């Protein structure tokens, strides 16, 4: 799910970002130029430059400037520049190499150089010259850049003249790939947990903004915009955003169900359906339930039969995705039954919001959280509702959804950092990419001999592996963790079933996911081959 693209800059908005990135790098980070009030640095050769840029969405996160007009900047620093070069040809000069900090030690630099080489070949340039900062000499060399001449610049900003040819780049590619693979694994563990999920750099940046008062006009406007954004994404009429967890969002739903007449019907075929039953019992709701063994489907016919058997049933409460297995309920079918029989529907969408498209327009209440499918930090509970909330003095203040509605979701202390982060994360939701990646992962795991629960009709965000008898889910998960792969296995219900899970939530890079699967596959194969005796990969 790699959203970074590489292109030649053509738009005015891209050039403005280039000037800002130029300032951040060569004024604030490497002190080559004087500060200015505009916080922009327009290169003296800007009109002659061609810029290769890396864009994550609309944001320019990396750049290289190419220029073939002589004299080069190196001509003014090295007398008789050609005497240092190994061959005659048609050189160009590469300058202003900059990658934003959040994207360093990733493939962005490599991909920029690949795009640079393509451009040079297209234009007939045989060599690219660069002044490489001494801070990154090792990386430049791994890329195929060759040093020549003396060090340049002053003490705080030293540079080494270097050149790159098609041949040197080609020879270095495999070595560079190995380097980046090792760096990636050393840099961070790869997380496939359903929470906390991997956080995109843009979301981290939004979260890191200075906190502001939850009573300020700025914060109120930000939260209003977030709630509108949530409603637009789901089709819901209203959304309340509360500081808390998914458990809180379901308690808020249970508190509202106290106001409905008649009995309810709760569906459960896994851990989280059973938790809804526990919520209902704690609020002393009257209800029937359809409870089946884990991962056993609950059909629309069974639900309709229960409704016809008990005319007092006036509402249904169900999870959308049973996170303990990945089972995905037929939400559209259940919505149809509720409409046909005049019932209210409540949905726990904690593991599906942001993972699969939701249509909550006719849903009475639905719960979710910020830290799973939406790809943000945990800490915000969200409740969608179709109608205005009824007033009730019997509900504890923190569970009174009416209080949140009346105060624009800010009756109590709120977090601007979490709101900023979620607002940014929602912009990055990509259902098609999640589905495509999930299908590829399922195919790879099955080919490796893993037994999976369900098929592509299950949630694309949760893939459950049923381990063979004799293979311990705890030991398998521990082994993955030792090799830098965090899978879900430590929950009581997973250990009890001897299952492990791969959750594809948050900022998942497709290439990194597929590369990490090689490690999971090797661990699995090693246990099969060695009779489940664990070894370090």
UniProtKB/TrEMBL annotation:
Q: Answer yes or no on keyword ATP-binding.
A: no
Q: Which GO terms describe its biological process?
A: glycine biosynthetic process, by transamination of glyoxylate
Q: Name one GO molecular function term.
A: acyltransferase activity, transferring groups other than amino-acyl groups
Q: List residues of the N-acetyltransferase domain.
A: 4-167
User: Which InterPro entries does the UniProt entry name for this protein?
Assistant: Acyl_CoA_acyltransferase (IPR016181), Aminotrans_V_dom (IPR000192), GNAT_dom (IPR000182), PyrdxlP-dep_Trfase (IPR015424), PyrdxlP-dep_Trfase_major (IPR015421), PyrdxlP-dep_Trfase_small (IPR015422)
Required co-factors:
pyridoxal 5'-phosphate
Recorded hits in Pfam families, A to Z, give:
Acetyltransf_1, Aminotran_5
Q: Which UniProt keywords apply?
A: Aminotransferase, Pyridoxal phosphate, Transferase
* PANTHER family named among the record's database cross-references: ALANINE--GLYOXYLATE AMINOTRANSFERASE, AMINOTRANSFERASE CLASS V
Can you say what this protein is called?
Aspartate aminotransferase-like enzyme
């Amino acid at each position: 799910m790699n959203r970074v693209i590489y292109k030649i800059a053509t738009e005015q908005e891209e050039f403005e970002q280039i000037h800002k990135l130029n300032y951040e790098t060569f004024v604030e980070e490497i002190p080559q130029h004087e500060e200015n009030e505009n916080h922009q640095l327009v290169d003296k050769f800007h009109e002659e430059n061609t810029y290769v840029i890396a864009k994550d969405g609309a944001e320019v996160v990396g750049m290289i400037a190419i220029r073939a007009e002589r004299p080069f900047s190196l001509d003014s620093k090295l007398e008789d520049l050609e005497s240092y070069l190994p061959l005659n040809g048609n050189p160009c000069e590469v300058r202003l190499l900059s990658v934003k900090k959040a994207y360093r030690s990733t493939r962005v630099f490599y991909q920029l150089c690949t795009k640079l080489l393509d451009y040079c070949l297209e234009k007939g340039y045989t060599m690219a010259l660069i002044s490489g900062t001494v801070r990154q000499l090792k990386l430049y060399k791994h890329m195929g850049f060759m040093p020549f001449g003396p060090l340049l610049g002053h003490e705080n900003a030293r540079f080494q003249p270097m050149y790159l040819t098609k041949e040197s780049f080609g020879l270095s590619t495999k070595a560079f790939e190995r380097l980046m693979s090792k760096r990636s694994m050393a840099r961070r563990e790869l997380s496939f947990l359903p929470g906390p999920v991997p956080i995109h750099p843009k979301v981290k940046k939004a979260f890191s903004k200075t906190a502001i008062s939850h009573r300020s006009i700025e914060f109120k406007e930000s939260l209003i915009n977030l709630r509108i954004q949530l409603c637009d994404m789901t089709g819901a009429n209203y959304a309340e955003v509360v500081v808390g967890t998914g458990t809180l969002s379901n308690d808020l739903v249970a508190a509202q169900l106290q106001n409905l007449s008649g009995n309810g019907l709760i569906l459960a075929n896994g851990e989280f359906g059973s938790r809804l039953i526990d919520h209902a019992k704690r609020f002393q709701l009257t209800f029937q339930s359809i409870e089946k063994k884990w991962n056993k489907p609950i059909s629309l016919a069974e639900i309709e039969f229960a409704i016809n058997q008990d005319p007092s049933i006036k509402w249904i409460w169900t999870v959308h995705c049973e996170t303990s297995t990945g089972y995905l309920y037929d939400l559209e079918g259940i919505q149809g039954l509720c409409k046909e029989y005049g019932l209210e529907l409540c949905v726990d969408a904690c593991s599906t919001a942001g993972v699969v498209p939701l249509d909550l327009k006719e849903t009475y209440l639905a719960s979710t959280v910020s830290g799973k499918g939406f790809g943000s930090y945990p800490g915000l509970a969200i409740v969608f509702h179709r109608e205005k909330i009824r007033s009730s003095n019997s509900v504890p203040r923190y569970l009174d959804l009416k209080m949140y509605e009346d105060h624009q979701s800010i009756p109590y202390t709120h977090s601007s950092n979490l709101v900023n982060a979620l607002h940014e994360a929602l912009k990055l939701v990509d259902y098609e990419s999640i589905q495509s990646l999930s299908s590829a992962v399922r195919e790879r795991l099955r080919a490796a001999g893993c037994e999976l629960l369900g098929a592509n009709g299950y949630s694309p965000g949760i893939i459950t592996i049923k381990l063979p008898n004799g293979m311990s889910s705890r030991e398998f998960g521990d082994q993955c963790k030792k090799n830098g792969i965090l899978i879900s296995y430590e929950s009581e219900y997973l250990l009890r079933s001897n299952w492990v899970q791969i959750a594809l939530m948050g900022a998942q890079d497709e290439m990194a996911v597929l590369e990490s699967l090689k490690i999971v596959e090797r661990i699995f194969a090693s246990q099969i081959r060695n009779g489940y005796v664990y070894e370090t990969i």
